[in-house]
Write a structure and sequence with these properties.
- This protein is mostly helical.
- It is elongated and about 65 Å long.
- It has three helices and no strands.
- The mean pLDDT is 85.
- The chain has a domain of 58 residues.
- The longest helix is centred in the last third of the chain and has 31 residues.
- Helix 1 packs antiparallel against helix 3.
Length: 88
């Protein structure tokens, strides 16, 4: 016996996360530039890996933009009605 009644699953929200990802990439670039300017100081302190963390953040950001563009294109094609076979 269920304690709560069954509710239908809502449709997923169609969001545009590209501006959020671009903001994140910009922040990683700024942090990376600061680290590049002070690289010798951070490397001596044993924090040379911080620069590589910025590089990884930038690469992952661009991968997320590619994923978002692909996801939105796939969703748009699924929403379009299929062409009738006789129209070809």
């Amino acid at each position: 016996m269920r304690r709560y009644p069954h509710r239908p699953v809502p449709e997923p929200l169609d969001t545009n996360s590209v501006p959020v990802v671009l903001t994140g990439i910009a922040l990683w670039v700024v942090a990376g530039l600061i680290l590049l300017l002070r690289h010798a100081q951070f490397a001596r302190a044993g924090h040379g890996w911080w620069l590589w963390t910025c590089v990884a953040g930038i690469v992952i950001g661009f991968a997320l933009i590619g994923y978002e563009v692909h996801r939105r294109a796939r969703r748009r094609s699924a929403e379009k009605p299929a062409e009738p076979a006789s129209a070809r």
